Amino acid sequence: MNKKIPVGILGATGAVGQRFIQLLEQHPWFEVTWLGASDRSAGKPYTEACKWRLNTPVPEKIARMLVNGAVPEGAPKVIFAALDSAAAKEIEPKFAAAGHAVITNSSALRMMEDVPLVIPEVNGDHLPLLKTQKWYQETGGFAVTNPNCSAIGLVMVLAPLHRRFGVEKVFVSTMQAVSGAGYPGVPSLDILGNVIPYIANEEQKMEEETRKLLGSLNGTSVVPAEITLSAHCNRVAVEDGHMESVSLKLHQPAQAEEIIAAWSEFRCLPQKLKLPYAPEQPVIYDPAPDRPQPRLDINRGAGMSAVVGRLRPCNLFDWRFTVLSHNTIRGAAGAAILNGELLKAQGYLS
Amino acid sequence: MNKKIPVGILGATGAVGQRFIQLLEQHPWFEVTWLGASDRSAGKPYTEACKWRLNTPVPEKIARMLVNGAVPEGAPKVIFAALDSAAAKEIEPKFAAAGHAVITNSSALRMMEDVPLVIPEVNGDHLPLLKTQKWYQETGGFAVTNPNCSAIGLVMVLAPLHRRFGVEKVFVSTMQAVSGAGYPGVPSLDILGNVIPYIANEEQKMEEETRKLLGSLNGTSVVPAEITLSAHCNRVAVEDGHMESVSLKLHQPAQAEEIIAAWSEFRCLPQKLKLPYAPEQPVIYDPAPDRPQPRLDINRGAGMSAVVGRLRPCNLFDWRFTVLSHNTIRGAAGAAILNGELLKAQGYLS
Amino acid sequence: MNKKIPVGILGATGAVGQRFIQLLEQHPWFEVTWLGASDRSAGKPYTEACKWRLNTPVPEKIARMLVNGAVPEGAPKVIFAALDSAAAKEIEPKFAAAGHAVITNSSALRMMEDVPLVIPEVNGDHLPLLKTQKWYQETGGFAVTNPNCSAIGLVMVLAPLHRRFGVEKVFVSTMQAVSGAGYPGVPSLDILGNVIPYIANEEQKMEEETRKLLGSLNGTSVVPAEITLSAHCNRVAVEDGHMESVSLKLHQPAQAEEIIAAWSEFRCLPQKLKLPYAPEQPVIYDPAPDRPQPRLDINRGAGMSAVVGRLRPCNLFDWRFTVLSHNTIRGAAGAAILNGELLKAQGYLS
Amino acid sequence: MNKKIPVGILGATGAVGQRFIQLLEQHPWFEVTWLGASDRSAGKPYTEACKWRLNTPVPEKIARMLVNGAVPEGAPKVIFAALDSAAAKEIEPKFAAAGHAVITNSSALRMMEDVPLVIPEVNGDHLPLLKTQKWYQETGGFAVTNPNCSAIGLVMVLAPLHRRFGVEKVFVSTMQAVSGAGYPGVPSLDILGNVIPYIANEEQKMEEETRKLLGSLNGTSVVPAEITLSAHCNRVAVEDGHMESVSLKLHQPAQAEEIIAAWSEFRCLPQKLKLPYAPEQPVIYDPAPDRPQPRLDINRGAGMSAVVGRLRPCNLFDWRFTVLSHNTIRGAAGAAILNGELLKAQGYLS
């Protein structure tokens, strides 16, 4: 692989767009050659169009790159997309229809019947669903999505249990970081010394995306997993890292050691294919009594692992535990990049 | 009532002790005349012994009062106690054995068979249990306790539903304020930009105290309510106010309006007796989509009301909602003061 | 005074507008009878037009009141104004020209030559400057302003020293609360775990407003005080309360006790006239080694006192100390209300 | 250099001790072979003795290492020390007297006449002062110190200006991170939503250490620089990163460009010697109007660079600006490691 695949970033100036640029700076397979954003930014050099909010510098090459409008003309074939949902709904189909591979973090198309919603470790085998897209059949373009930042950590932790023991019921209460709301996002007056017990549409997304992700591809459609979930979504004064208190009921009984083994041994397509962004260990169990914690554990597996702790029996269901995942890496830009890598490894990007 | 009852504060220099002093400053029935603390503080004027952390000034009379050791000699009959659990276990029985009415916020004696664990609105009728105490029979002294700061808000909100519809199962995931851990309590490096998914013994306390509080006094013992709870306790970067995400299953079906009515109409002994510290409305339902919030709702009912919001159906049980209560007022000092008022109103303090 | 003066609130839905409504709810002289806001809000009931962010409920009468557009027609004579600066620059003159008394917190007109910039305790004698306004001469309308939230605490603390010893030079470095930026104001991603060393125009405002406030009215113009200031303005993760580290040089030498006496004895027009919103003690010196602190001291004097602490010699100038004041009460709505009371007491509102 | 120098960590379980272990994990010259701590920890494996608070894992080799008591017997010759000041005062001299090279972050010995207080970029030429130590003459042991975490950023930024233009007067107001107080350190109730305007002895340390650091070695003693400083030290709700608002007066006039050039071109001994921990650019000027900020800039130069911003004229002195430095890397463990590297490079550790 001596030549990198040129990729474009749609929504390049936003919070997730910035993460794409940061994470792709040293990527062995992909090279950012095109930036797209709203008309307000179009025509400006990137550093002028964007209020960079990450604690590493803007890559030099990107800093001087001119931002384009959000139209397919002139864009490379492979697009990582980070538009807000309303814009995505309108713009992403245009790119797919023009023959682009749209690998998107937006929620706009996630629940569409012919759009794969994928976590490579969990349901990489759903990718062929993209062949049913009209875009694919007409132009070779397609859209592939990754889940909501609050669903991804949960599903990574449920997947190995679902395979071995079957997951029946899940109660989950989240404590989500402000970076999940983008920038400017949550006003500081709303979150300093406070908790907000509401994130628009988040509970519904967690519930329905989880079923689609753990479902099975049956020819040309995904049969959702028969799991009942009840989610409570809260925003807390944390910069990065979504925490989740989980209780779950399994089909088959399982001992604590079996559960921990299922998590610790969980390896999958991305690990076998040695995808560059795949964490060595997708789910890490930490046996300390007071872990995981965002400040201490958020960067495990370079932000791509889900961390679980406090496994203990549940009085109502079978087991209780706590999940942490990095919401802007594993839960957004990193998720899409790993989808892109899987697409490449399986021949969808050539 | 032209003469106030003299009361003492055990553990007067700690966080809850300070709240007792603050809340009792203008109390119509009680007057603080004695302060007790560890030997380290004994003999010093209060302001010297104590690092006052509240945002109202130390009452002038208290400021100059000398602190006594934690021994019954010289203490008034009525004692509000705020010792840490280990000290309480040793010291509170000495006071009760010496004939004092010990109204305590400590967890040390809460689950003892002959010690009433009381929220006046919920189970004021458990008070007669104190007559079974050996101390009471021998010297007239006794101990009465209030629940853990995380249990009290939950139980206030469950009680009216339990009466009308029967509560069967409860999931609860908490987001608790740092003031619940006292002072110095939680190190700032542990909580800034962080969530700690563990509070020692807290989940067990919530589960067992809730059953005792919602149980019934059967002659000389309390029969715990047959409710199954599963608690997840988390610490967040909030100064005051415990938030709780709750899912519950009822015996009898209930409509949303019936549930809201049960909460809004909930009035009880303290309201009927017009106890000075009783909130007009013990449970307040807020219909806004994003309430309650600690910063905005913590002082409703002068910090003595529990606030509920986001009532919506639960996919697993019947209903989901969010609860907030003030952990150092309703959840600690205010709870004990209301217990003291009920004891007084019912003739136990004369 | 058996009938209250009807007043209107311009910019009623914003953060300072909400404070006006909260603070005026029980006011003995003024009664809010009119609400004005942008066209977007006009015609809606207040609770619908406004996202109320204070921790006391919207006064019932106000909740149902319809919001008007920001035009003078139909508005009462006395207007408290809380528009943002750009809107104020355009709208406030229209109200003054239509005969209204515009008592404003906005920065728009503060430095205009014929507009009094007033802290009642400091320079209430500047009020007659309003008679030089063309509006006043033509219609009886006028505009009176209060200073920036960061200037007001500093100037209250400088004023008694300036009178007794003369202030020559002032270094000030601020740590300002997020509420000073209004709502939504500072994004949480910008301030959690962070300090922002920049607030647009704030340093210039502090420097020039201080000189005007401590200046003297010379016939028909204000001669600014000959004080040199150098301000450093920073934003920190505090909800309410601006802190300021100050070094100052005096004309005449002064001992620590003389300085503390100057602060403690400082009483002025508002105290003599017993204006309802006047704090008993405008400047409070706290001798504790680690005070003032926002969380503990912000509400002294009901949020209308400036609190000073840590007086100690300065190696460069004469003295160093720390100042705290409540930025949305003393620094905004409360400041304007006190201006309104002084105007009323001196016959400008009849 | 094919064999690493064995080093010991004194105070290995504390916050700075942990940083030493983290930063030395991959060090090309030094290898941690010995851990010393209080008697309470002695005899335990490191992970048992220590509550690890960093967001990278404990190096495997260290995790299993047994902790020793804080006595020289059995310790390697080179010791990095991170004891609290009281312990350091007693223990460090024992190690030096026993022939060890004590490279310490503690304040205990910093201002002793024969102890070098060194920032390699600033006054590496003070190292020979250690030869005047009685310990050195008798056993070859010695002590070398680095400055307080609040002084180091300031002095790095002053040094290039002092060399070119002469620094006369400095006003500095700090906003310091909680990690500067160690662990458990600042209670969360003291800092959430708050500022503490006091850090014990910090202002004196900044003032006197700065003069010693910028002074000159005159044979066998350091002549302090003739600079007058006035420091205001404040604690804010930031995890890592000390911010400082600075005004300064120079001997010789300097233009903004000259000052920025002095900073940007500042290279010194550690850069010339290519010491492993030396940042490429010790002082980085950021021209953005709102920088530096802890969250965004703390890791520049791997936490070893000081970042300056907002250079603008000062009304009282010559120039105003803002300084940021990483208080536990450049301000503590990293500072000592760089001192160790300079000692090694100059032959003091053989």
Please provide a written account of the structure.
- The structure is a homotetramer of 350-residue chains.
- Chain A has 2 domains: 5-148 and 333-345, Rossmann fold (3-Layer(aba) Sandwich); 149-326, Dihydrodipicolinate Reductase, domain 2 (2-Layer Sandwich).
- Chain A contains 13 helices and 14 strands.
- Chain A has helices at residues 15-24, 46-49, 60-63, 85-97, 120-123, 134-139, 149-165, 188-191, 202-213, 256-265, 269-272, 294-297, 329-345; strands at 5-10, 30-37, 67-69, 78-81, 101-104, 142-145, 167-176, 216-218, 221-223, 228-235, 242-250, 283-286, 306-313, 319-325.
- In chain A, the strands form 3 sheets. In chain A, strands 3-2-1-4-5-6 form a 6-stranded parallel sheet, sandwiched between helices. In chain A, strands 10-7-11-14-13-12 form a 6-stranded mixed sheet, with helices on one face. In chain A, strands 8-9 form a two-stranded antiparallel ribbon.
- In chain A, β8 and β9 form a beta hairpin.
- The longest helix of chain A is centred in the middle third of the chain and has 17 residues, at 149-165.
- At the B-C interface, α12 of B face α12 of C.
CATH class term of the largest domain in chain A: Alpha Beta
CATH architecture of the largest domain in chain A, by name, is 2-Layer Sandwich
Distance between the amino and carboxyl termini of chain A: 13 Å
CATH superfamily placement of the largest domain in chain A: Dihydrodipicolinate Reductase, domain 2
